[in-house]
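In this section we walk through a basic example: taking a raw amino acid sequence and producing a predicted 3D structure, encoded as discrete structure tokens. The instruction is simple. Fold the sequence below.
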Amino acid sequence: MSMMSEAPIWQFINELSSDAPIPGGGGASGLVAACGMALGNMVLSLTTGKKKFEQYQDEIDDLIEKGNNLTDALLRGMDADAAAFIPLTMAYRMPKETEEEQAKRDAVMEEALVTASEAPLHMMANIMEAMHLIHRIAEIGSRMAISDAGVGIQCCMAAMHGASLNVFINTKSMKNREVAEDMNRRADALIKEAELVGNRTYELVLQAVR
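The resulting token sequence is shown next.
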């Protein structure tokens, strides 16, 4: 499998619009979130070294490093999401003519559904971390570029909801409802936290630009 995170953007978009099973919503969510975090780092790049913000310089240096690492993690999440989906596609193709075949298929399918849910859950956790960083960037970053922090937080918010759909579509098919509901709760908690941070950050930016 080729690395989507290393492909030219036009190639990714062309593959996304095709009938290929991957990339799909998970890969798109990872890319959008990475763009959001990168916009946060853009604000930091326009802030670092400026005398007006020198009181925050040590924190800015730390945020730049964390932001770069998160951007890389979100891009890698595109590939992880695609890799996690492959076992599921293989499970769907397994024979199910006999009871033995059906039982084997069900067991493989259940495991594949868990794997396919864990990848977007991990992505959501990274997106949440990115959103906290962007909120702080909106507080201390250059006022000339604060709108970019606002765009970044909106990108991450959309990506958070997008990744959650990839969790829910898989947990819905799980036979083990205890595992499914645990994953749903984890996703719901991240969405709730993201909405609080996202709305607060967006309002902060809106007040600064209007």
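Looking at the output, two observations stand out. Residues 23-209 form a domain with the Four Helix Bundle (Hemerythrin (Met), subunit A) fold (CATH 1.20.120.680). The mean pLDDT is 94. In the next section we compare this with other chains.
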